[in-house]
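Table 4 source record.
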Amino acid sequence: MITLLKFVHLAAIAIWSGGLLVLPLMFRQRQGLAPGPELDRLHRFTRFIYVGMTSPAAFVAIGSGTALIFLQTTFVEWFSLKMVLVGGMAMLHVVAGLVMAQLYEPGGRFGRVAMATLTTAYTVLIVGVIWLVLAKPNIDSNAFAEQLFAPGGLHRLIGPLLPPGLTPWLAQWPGDTRMPMP
C-alpha cells in the first residue's frame, strides 16, 4: 500500500513540477501574438497544461503526500523544511494561475524578466525539495529554536509581534490545554 502511494506521489510531483517549469515558457510565447487563431490555440494549450494537468497533479501530490506523512509518521526537522518549500510551490502555482488569467486579455504581456524570475523560483523550490528528500539532512532545531518546542514556545516567539489586546485573549481562548498529570 505504501509503495503504491509513494509511486503515485512521485508521479504526481513529476507532472506538477514539469508543468510549473513549462508554464513560464508558455506565458512568454504570448509576446507579440495578435488576437486570432494562434493566440487562441496558445491560450487553450496553456489552460490545458495548467487546469488539465498541473493543477490535478498538485492536488494528487499534496493529497498522497499528506497520507504518506501519517502512514510513515515522518515528523523530523528536514521534513518540516520540505513542507515549507512545497508550500512555496503551491503559492507560486496560484501565481501562475493569476498570471494566466490576465495574460490572454488584450494587451497582455509576460516579459523576459518575469519569465526568468518565475522559472528560477520554481527551479529553486523543486531542486530544494529533491535535495531535502534525498539528503535527509540532520537539522537540529534546538540549535536555532531551543524554546520553540517547549510549552508556550510559539507564544514567546510571536507574542511581541501581536497587537497588545490580542495577547490576553489568545492566552485564555483555547482553555487549559496542558496534559493532566496523574
